[in-house]
Each structure stands twice: as C-alpha cells, then as structure tokens.
Design brief:
By secondary structure, the chain is of the alpha+beta class. It has 2 domains: about 40 residues; about 80 residues. Helix content is about 35%, strand content about 30%. The termini are far apart.
Amino acid sequence: MQVFTYIAAFIFVLALIGLGAWLLKNVLLRNGAPSMPFFAPKVKRLGVIEATSVDGRRKLVLVRRDEMEHLIMTGGPVDVVIETGISISSAIGGTLSANNDSEKAPAIIASSKDRLAEDED
C-alpha cells in the first residue's frame, strides 16, 4: 500500500514541475517579463523574406536586415548582390526612395573560391 502512495506522490511532483515549466514558458516569457531582463525576447535582425528559383542552380533571395532589404542571387559559381539598401517603405509603395544608391554602386560579386578562402582564415 505504501508503494502506491510513493508512486502517486512522484506523479504529483512531476505534474507540479510540468505546470511550473508551462507557466514559465507561456506567461512569463510571452510578455517579456520586464522584472527579469534575462528572459526578454531577442529581437530578430535578420530574415529571409522571400526566395524564388531562377533555374536549376540559382535562386533570388530577398533578405531583410534591420529595416533594409537586399536582393541576392545565389547558386552557381558566384553569388551576386543585385540590389542593396531597399527601404521597406519604398518596397511597399512601389517607388524607389531618394537615398537608394544601388544605381551608383557596383554589384558585389563573391565567387565560391573567395568564400572558401575566407572560411579557412
């Protein structure tokens, strides 16, 4: 009879631990818990907005960093930055902003050999 009491107490303790973990995850971490700054949600600065295939090897990738977007062609022997510094407001409005210097700046080309050399350093 005592064995059943120990098993029930063990299951009860496991349920309390699970409830505490659920509360910590869903209540404290969702609101950012200002009283506990180490639980604050991290701000994502980098993300892939959209990607589309050009052909079997190459892809066009729209990447957002902070509040700017960059259009990159990847795959094949070289990766090319097609357009950089696209502001989000101009992308939504459909017009280029006045501070977009992509026409003046040359395209940045990185070959796979350059990337391998950088990785070895």
